Amino acid sequence: MTDKELEQRLEKVLSATAPDDLDGVLSRCAARKGTVIPMKRVTTGKFWKTLVAACLVLVLAGGGGAYYYQANAVASVVSLDVNPSIELKINKNEKVLSATPMNEEGADILEGMDLKGTQADVAMYAIIGSLLQHGYVDELANSILITVEDENTQRGEKLQAELTAQADAAMANAQVNGAILSQTLQMSDELKAKAEEYGISAGKAALIQTVVDGSHGTKTFESLVGLSINELNLLYSSVSVPAADPEESGAVGGDTAAPIQTTGSASQSAYVGLETAKQAALKHAGLSQADVTFLEAEYDYDDGRMVYEVEFYASGEKFEYEIDAATGAVIKYERESTGSSNPGVSLPAGNIGESAAKQTALEHAGVKESDTKYCNVWLEYDDGWPECYEVEFMAGSTRYEYEIALTSKTVIKFETKNLGGQAAQGENGSQAESGTQAGGTSGDIGAQAAKAAAFAHAGVSEAQAYELEVERDYDDGRLEYEVEFKTGRMEYQYTIDGVTGSILEYEWDQDD
Amino acid sequence: MLMLILAQTMEQERARDREALERLLSDVATGYQEALAQLYHRTRTAVYGLALSYVKNAQDAQDITQDTFVRIWDSAPQYRPQGSPMGWILTIARNLALMKLREGQRKGELEEEQWNAIPAQAPNLSTEDRLLVQNALATLEDQERRVVVLHAVTGLKHREIAALLELPLATVLSKYHRALKKLKLQLEGDGIR
């Protein structure tokens, strides 16, 4: 028997025993809203019928004449998201005017329930009961999102508090450890448009926007649309506590999104947990917790899966890990080595020393040492030869990384990263300019011009770019600028001639 | 010469398969259920084979197979073509399989499960075939079984299998060859008796 015959035999047996239950799969696949479904598969009949019926209720309610106007005017709109998504229209007496499923699962939840005319909190209790019964809130995914839209913020917040209390009670009653995210907001046109575009509720759109705003430009709205409320809750809890600067916590979310209240904590049962993730990274690095400093882990979403970002420092090296949240496996790791000295290599004469290097960086940044945190300076070696000083510190919510020349107080390279709520790139842009001044020589086009050349070539505006890095470099005796930035899913790398501004090399990549 | 042409044809076939899967996934992303149906028929054996090689029992592997396709339906809009649609699909299946295994551990099913994966009542399958494969695969170690099953049913290359299983390529190759040797010994030995 040849290898191929053997494999074919295996294939034959496995293919005969593999399940062939397409209907079982399709019955669990909700119709995606906002997409065209070919006529030949009419699987969404029930959904549309329910929707039409719900709309009819609204039309009838709205057409009742002036006498009924008060009772039938919509005062608040409440949306409830788990994965099923439901919208309740409430009048000022907190009576339900209509309950509308926003997706097919939502229709399942509401099936057989007549909520019209009931008190809003009673309706909430019933809906949560149905959600539990249908298995949408369980040990693996326990988060629900309650959003109240109301022009009258005070009234909205009161309703939000009542509904949250009811949902909490319903879950406690069923002995489910639930987590509730709740918010009251006034809908902006921008959010409405996003909600419509992706076929999600406005409340979920607002939550996603908050996570995106808090992600320092590393997330896009689109990439998060498919996540469940539980996953979003985990990400939200990561972004809402800025890693290095607790004073900044108010800034997350910007001023467009309403603050989100949370009760309970999102289930992590589907994942290995922050502690396990940290241990997995440490184990991989061959270190123990006692060997490292600034050990941090948080949830992130990358390449279509939930991951933990684990970061720590050990003996002057920085370790960055990405751990699969579901399996605890190491997906990626990066170890930024400061290198070590060849035996017998001594520092060049006239080296400025660590404290002068630190001073140079602080002056360049315009920051006093007393205003910094985690200020570190060390010698960077390349192939065993001392190359430069490296200085790192945090000031406010910004992390600065500098490379300072060995023998003169010159900034060779610097990078700033904003870890707080404000836009990161403005900071980078202006800093990059001053970088040129520090290292400027005659016949040098400067970082600004190099950056502009790269943007022009890529057809990208600076406003679209993030994680912008400009590095001034000598390569083969030629002055060059390395310009790197990202937009959406693309990553760009340019090498620009530092004297002529012409593009020497470039690379575009899918950012993954 | 013939070998070369054969190899080229296989390579072309592979590329065509890949393109077809990419196309199906992008159709699934737009909410086209027929595309999911086609995807299911093309890849269910691979998904099932992978699931089985982890959980080692038919019932759980069937559940994982169904969950995988539901997950594909939900996640397809996030899929970006990166040259290995099958790799993406199987990564989902693998994550679900690992989750299932952990669930088992939490419930205290600590005992190593025996390989008992080929159900007795499978239509279109002779008892002889069934027993042969059941017994032959039972002689393999977990990782050997995984590698050989993946190679047989997914069309993935060893390099891709290594990436999927997070193992070094050399390990995958040696496990594969050892597994084939054991299987042949078992199957051919059986024929002589």
Question: How would you describe this structure in keywords?
Answer:
heterodimer, A: 512 residues, alpha+beta, Nuclear Transport Factor 2, Chain: A, 6-stranded mixed beta sheet, B: 193 residues, mainly alpha, 8 helices, globular
Helix content of chain B: over 70%
Q: Which percent bin holds the helix content of chain A?
A: 25-40%
- Note the main sheet of chain A: 6 strands, mixed
Oligomer: heterodimer
Portion in beta strands of chain B: under 5%
Task: Write a concise synopsis of the structure shown.
Chain A has 512 residues and is of the alpha+beta class. Chain A is built from 15 helices and 18 strands. In chain A, the strands form four sheets. In chain A, strands 3-2-1-4-5-6 form a six-stranded mixed β-sheet, sandwiched between helices.
Provide structural commentary.
The complex is a heterodimer of chains A (512) and B (193). Helix content of chain A is 34%, strand content 28%. Chain A has 15 helices and 18 strands. Chain A has helices at residues 3-17, 22-27, 45-62, 69-72, 104-110, 120-133, 153-173, 189-198, 202-213, 221-224, 229-239, 274-285, 354-365, 424-439, 446-458, and strands at 76-81, 85-90, 96-101, 143-150, 179-185, 261-263, 293-302, 305-314, 317-324, 330-336, 372-382, 385-395, 398-404, 411-418, 466-475, 478-487, 490-497, 503-510. Chain A has a 6-stranded mixed sheet, sandwiched between helices. Chain A has a 4-stranded antiparallel sheet with strand order 7-8-9-10. In chain A, helix 6 (120-133) packs parallel to helix 7 and helix 9 packs parallel to helix 11. The radius of gyration of chain A is 28 Å and the shape is globular. Chain B is an all-alpha fold. Helix content of chain B is 77%, strand content 0%. Chain B contains 8 helices and no strands. Chain B has helices spanning 2-29, 33-55, 58-75, 85-106, 127-138, 142-154, 158-165, 169-192. In chain B, helix 3 (58-75) packs across helix 4 (85-106) and helix 6 (142-154) packs across helix 8 (169-192). The radius of gyration of chain B is 18 Å and the shape is globular. Classes of the chains: A alpha+beta (512), B mainly alpha (193). Chains A and B meet through helix 1 and helix 2 of A and helix 2, helix 3, helix 4, helix 5 and helix 6 of B.
